[in-house]
Amino acid sequence: MAESATPGRRRGTELEHAIYVATLDELAANGYGRLTMDGIAARAGTGKAALYRRWPGKQPLVLDALHYALPPLPEPNPEHSTRDNLAGALGAFNDVLSGRTLIPGIEFIVDMLHEPELRAMFAKRIITPRLERIEAILRAGVHSGEFGPEIVHPLAARTGPALILQSFLLTGEPPSPREIDLIIDTVLRRTAM
Question: Its domain of life (predicted)?
């Protein structure tokens, strides 16, 4: 049955964005374990059927909402140094942890650890492309002759995000700009493997 075009009724992209925001708000308020399609629909001001027409369940909806909320990684600029391009990529990750995006925060990430299927989907769809971007930045630095091939090793792309996350877990605060500089120094310095 087609939706009628009643005045004030949200449809299409407008409704989808409202559902994403409602999903993120519900995640922040209740965590993934207590997240329900009913709660999302109520917060979005729509019917549950509108959700199920687009998503078969809460996992794909949560992943789409997270993808919606994450700012795109800045494209590496070939005119910039590897360090500057890396600063852009790591700064975007730091923005997520510091609450500068709609992502519900570290509590959601911890909550997700108890949901292996969601964690795997999150890693594949959200984390892996960002790690691939960091690795591409490092490889471009090698290709340009700015760095030797030793900066691209199996853990190179993971090092910066891991140090940012560790800093947040230990202090409750995202790293400062000075600490981000030190993290970049660590990524660009070849460590003994």
Answer: Bacteria
The larger pLDDT score, comparing residue 76 to residue 51, is at 51
What is the spatial distance between Cα 7 and Cα 76, in angstroms, rounded to a whole number?
Answer: 44
**Residues 88/72, Cβ–Cβ less than 8 Å:** no
Both tokens of 54, joined, read 């687009």
Query: Residues 122, 72, 69, 110: is their CA dihedral positive or negative?
Result: positive
Instruction: Provide the token pair at 46.
Output: 């729509």
**Model pTM score:** 0.79
Q: Which of 117, 119, 66, 75 is nearest to 96 (CA)?
A: 66
- Phi, psi angle pair for 130, to nearest 5°: -75, -40
What are the structural domains, with CATH classification, of the chain? 12-56 (1.10.10.60), 70-188 (1.10.357)
Residues 159-178: tens digit of each pLDDT: 999 999 899 889 988 899 99
Q: For position 186, what pLDDT does the model report?
A: 92
CB-CB contact of 188 with 182 (8 Å) = no
- Scanning 31-176, the segments in alpha helix (DSSP H) are 37-44, 48-54, 58-69, 82-97, 106-112, 116-122, 128-143, 156-171
